[in-house]
Specification:
Layout: E1 7-11, H1 19-29, E2 33-38, H2 54-65, E3 71-75, H3 81-95, E4 100-102, H4 111-119
Parallel strand pairs: 1-2, 1-4, 2-3
């Protein structure tokens, strides 16, 4: 597939060995620029232990950048409309567009809806 210079947002991408991280790495290998989004906080402050940590996400962002694509790691709470809006704004300021949205964040609340609602107009 040709994803050269496409811009992809992958939510739930902050945990090494997680599905979001694997998806992001595959998209980058195909030439896409990435926004890695996750709560990325210490597990003791999270409601569930499945979220990634900031250091993990930064390390993977560096690995992705080494593939020759751009990568923007962001702390995002997909259950909060304001946080999602900030993610979309940062993506547009950095890359100027959004081509792909992967709603991988594993929260039972309406995160996927909020992300789609914010990304679709772009």
């Amino acid at each position: 597939m040709n994803l050269q210079d496409k811009v992809a947002i992958v939510t739930g991408a902050g945990r090494r060995g997680g599905i979001g991280m694997a998806v992001a790495q595959r998209l980058a290998a195909e030439g896409a620029h990435l926004v890695l989004a996750d709560l990325a906080a210490p597990p003791s402050t999270l409601l569930h232990g499945g979220s990634g940590q900031w250091e993990e996400m930064l390390a993977v962002a560096q690995e992705i950048a080494a593939l020759g694509v751009r990568c923007l790691p962001l702390r995002v709470d997909v259950t909060q409309a304001a946080s999602v809006a900030e993610m979309i704004t940062a993506t547009m300021q950095t890359f100027g567009r959004i081509d792909i949205l992967v709603n991988n964040a594993g929260d039972h609340r309406p995160g996927a809806f909020l992300c789609c609602k914010a990304a679709l107009p772009r």
